[in-house]
Write a structure and sequence with these properties.
117 residues; 6-stranded antiparallel sheet; 31% strand; Aspartate Aminotransferase, domain 1; 4 helices; globular; single chain; alpha+beta
Length: 117
């Protein structure tokens, strides 16, 4: 998936924002909490990491070549890193990013969720 399309899709989700953190890394958030991390190499997405359900985490890390548990202890919270852009189709990436967004949004405090209507 091209970086510009991934960025447009993620920012098209309600109340999604992004910041550049940790050098050349785009961090997409909802309510101040991360749901997608894109490591850049210039204008190319070198790797993307996203939150998964426990079932998707298990399936993706054991059945899909090019996906591994995310580093920096994120794997403990069911995050994966897509290292090979061909490992998932664009539709599958969009589905996973939307699921990550939904998981993080649902975990936000109810009071914060109410402000994101």
């Amino acid at each position: 998936m091209r970086l510009d399309r991934l960025q447009a899709f993620a920012l098209g989700l309600p109340h999604a924002t992004f910041v550049k953190q940790w050098g050349e890394t785009l961090v997409f958030k909802i309510g101040g909490k991360m749901f997608l991390i894109v490591s850049l190499d210039g204008d190319i997405a070198e790797a993307i990491a996203f939150k998964c359900s426990p079932a998707d985490y298990q399936r993706l890390t054991t059945e899909v070549d090019g996906i591994r548990p995310a580093s920096h202890n994120l794997h403990k919270a069911h995050w994966v890193t897509l290292e090979d852009p061909e490992a998932l189709t664009e539709t599958q990436i969009r589905t996973q990013v939307r699921a990550a967004y939904d998981l993080i949004r649902a975990a936000l405090p109810k009071k914060l969720q109410a402000t994101l209507k």
